[in-house]
Amino acid sequence: MNLQDTKKRNDIILIICVVVAAVICFAAYKLYFNKSGKFVTVKVDGKVTASYPIDVDKTVTINGVNGGKNVLKISGGTADMTEADCPDQTCVKKHSIRYEGETIVCLPHKVVISIDHSSNDKTDDDAPDAVVK
């Protein structure tokens, strides 16, 4: 066996190892990190304004900053921004979301829709008792 054949064989082994590693990483990501969320959280200007269960179909109008309006549709375990009166419509063009950590953002209205594992409803009981400086 000459040097050329050895190099070709090593190249093929390297390519197979890289492909196998990529498949293993992809499978691990799908199994461990791509979990379906349970709640759709709505934030306007950085503040949580609502949280809805993702398994209950609902259509909600969200009032963003500067009088902007967005329409959120929760259906079939997914959340989707179906309408917005912002000029670029990027939030409407984004695909629907269903997994924890996924978001839909409308920058002109400062609206962020995210999928979470737990409800982010804020009550007075969640407020801190004291602040230390």
Automatic annotation (TrEMBL):
Segments traversing the membrane: 12-33
Q: Which InterPro entries does the annotation name?
A: NusG_2_sf
The superkingdom listed in its UniProt entry is Bacteria
Protein keywords: Membrane, Transmembrane, Transmembrane helix
* Pfam families xref list: NusG_II
UniProt protein name: NusG domain-containing protein
Organism field: Butyribacter intestini
